Amino acid sequence: MKLRFFLALWAAKLSRPLLKITRHNGTNFPGELALKICPDFLKYVAKPRKIIAVTGTNGKTTVSNMICDILELSGKKVLNNRAGSNINSGISTSLLTGVTIFNRPRFDFAVLEVDERSSKRIYPFVKPELMVITNLFRDSIMRNAHPQYIADFLTDSIPPETKLVLNADDLISSSVAPDNPRVYFGIERMDTDVTECVNLINDMRVCPRCLGELKYEYLRYHHIGRAYCEECGFHSPSYDYTGGDVDTRNMTMNIRDKKGSGSYALLSDSVFNIYNMVAVVALLRELGMSHDEISRYMAKISIVESRYNEMTVGDVALVMQMAKDKNALACSRAFDYVTEQPGNKELFLMVNCLGDEKHWSENVCWLYDCDFEFLARPGVEHIVVTGPRGKDYKLRLLLAGVPEEKIDWARDELEAADLLRLKPGSSVYFFYGTDSVVLAHKVRAKAIEHIQGDDR
Amino acid sequence: MKIEILYPELCNLYGDLANAKYLARSCDAEIINTSLKETPRFISEEVQLVYLAGTTEKGQEIVRDRLRPYIKEIENRINEGGITLVTGNSLEIFGESITDEKGNQVDMLGMFPIKSRRDMMHRYNALYLGKFEDMDIVGFKSQFGHAYGEPQGLFETVRGAGLNPESRWEGIRYGNFMATYLLGPIMVLNPPFAKYVLRLMGVEDAKLAFEDTAMDVYMTRVQEFKDPNRGFEY
User: So where are chain A's domains?
Assistant: First the structure.
């Protein structure tokens, strides 16, 4: 087995310069090759002394990048998988770069973003000392079924010795691996909180103890908030790390725990990212860093808003808003955020899963889990729907209360770009899926042509 | 006109609840949401349609326990022609048992002669094309289990899996009790079938909400699903 492992390690290491020469950097090929030669590669490859894992439906890339950046700023040598994927081949690729050809570890720390569904292939061999679970929401119907399935999957996979850093405001993820050591983070009441869910998806409506109706002291979106049951007294876990005094105007918040508190500059005004910040602080405090240190380093990093990109052309703002296709929750969050922005808006919906359309037909059930009702809000003047599922969007919009005269359809995305009105002073939002990036930019280029040629 | 949704706080996956909303909107019916702690309304009053949507695996057992005291009333409702629609894995609740991949078996309500087998490590994802009387039925499947047995089927399978990959029949039909593994908004996706259900409910000359657009979407999907070059299993 040793010989097989070393053959795998050397072959995989050798493949890296070859990939560089052929300009195929950042792929999982080395890890895939290692696993092919030695299926137990993850078992034998030497690991850094401390391993931190980050998992969850949303925010795992942001949180793992932030933890990694701050640890590096503090002088630690940190191995990570940000250049590759978060499944077992990506983790293998990262770990093999972290050892010498004699399989000796070169890093003190590893910060690994781990896909929830890959847990069973990773955690038997890679045992994190600490793990952040950001949240668990509905994701792809086909792959992730429902969040309780993923919670059970994690419970069955996470090593018993791993200490969990959990979101107390999420009763699904905070229930994972109940016998593991754990701390909780959360955010106190905010000005924008509600007590009744306005979203179609709320996967925590029932008390897990007595099946009574769960109520919320405060609720942010979907099932994220502080819940309690009037019938049996059940309530969300208490916070060990508390985000408070969140001020999105001055972009500040405090985070406190039983050993102290710190003042932090917000890196983003979205609640999702404020949760990500609190999760990062909780994890770093568990590693023994002071609030002062964390706050100082955090001020030097930024959150890459890769899914949101704005430009102004003439008198029109063009905003690219990537929304994970087939993901009702991601689209609901994006719809909510965009329609709450001031001013008149025109929307272009092309959140089709083009990959599915090549071979099958996209499962559109998610459209009826997604809050298209937000798009009926005032300020949305016109919506163009397009792509293979464009007509499905139109029907969903009508059922959501959007008047028919506000909706235009064209099957071809580039022809649909001609339907944009591009009114002076308005903002145009292009919603596109993860496999439509190139096409979405072509659509935007066409819109730019129309504005610049004053052809609108 | 009343449509009762059973346990929507637990049975609401994959946009299923759009079925009841769409039918209610098309016939101006009142929607009654019956929670886990309440007695179903169809026990004590006339309800034109009872709807139960798909749920989690734990949810299946909770719903079974909630419905068990009312088996007699459910049987009476079926025998008297009451309309009941069940979608997704809630179909399995009305069968005899569910056995998981480790061999663990849980008993279900035992109202229909099916036994389900579940494998949580293998999810079955597929498109579905079937026939109901002279109507084309289109839909989606995404499930961990299949059912085995020979109840009277609801849809005759043209492409895709029936109750199980070898079965010609999809779902269960007994009188006006209709259960199908198809998930999500099957009423919105199948306007002719939605109109059939509305007629059963007593709505003459039913006109669906946004019927023209819904029919356009339906015809497009039927054409796609009949295309022999289109893959069917994900």
Answer: 2-185+239-298, 189-235, 308-452
